């Protein structure tokens, strides 16, 4: 009589199987998200997108090389910014920064406001470092938001002046004063520890930021600036390819206005017309740009800077390995 000596699966084995399934679901989910956005887009038919690219002779070696190069530079700067931030507590190579940034993009592309990026980046590090990673991710995103607000404010001011838009300055002034007051109070007083952003209380964020090297924060903001200039000019290059007539200053004012309004929504509606449709379509209607052409350009920007990098990020997600036997993971 034979006895079956095979031991049942261990807990670690079950965890490994579950982790593989999670990785597959992330990649398949991200792939379906990109596919669905292209083929079931209510504002843009996929065949029209292809016809528009052919009509304007966009798909040439020269154009595609330059557009993809700008996307590579864009994400290269983001990855380098991440490397600089993480170097405050542990050194990582540029290759590791690329893996973590693109892997986090793939994991977060389906989540609202890419909130999944925080958890995705944290999982690359051992437990003692994960709270720091959350803080660094937040600081990296805030540095990008700061540049968006600074340049966008200039562009928006020019847009209002150039196109004689009526703005309720009293409401804007009240909003700015209230915002500054709230931020000051949150960062100045201890009782607000229960209020947090991405799991970080304001006081903890303040203390965490103080521990970072000042050069790191300044360098992070500079890299965010360079990155902003890259994708803003990528948008401008597409305007040229699609023969949208506008001076450089006007075009950049509209582009920067688009980004700051997109970042502010739904926090504040400066212009009531914004809620009636796409921000980009509304803004570029002031220079009589074709509505569908602007939708094509914004779709291409999304493809070049989110969909395409997420494809490479899928490779990093599938190849990511976690040591389940290590209690510190």
UniProtKB/TrEMBL annotation:
Top-level taxon in the UniProt lineage: Bacteria
Residues spanning the signal sequence: none
Keywords (A to Z) from UniProt: Membrane, Transmembrane, Transmembrane helix
Transmembrane segment boundaries: 17-38, 58-77, 133-160, 172-191, 212-230, 236-261, 293-318
UniProt-recorded name of the protein: Lysylphosphatidylglycerol synthase-like protein
Organism: Pseudofulvibacter geojedonensis
Source lineage: Bacteria, Pseudomonadati, Bacteroidota, Flavobacteriia, Flavobacteriales
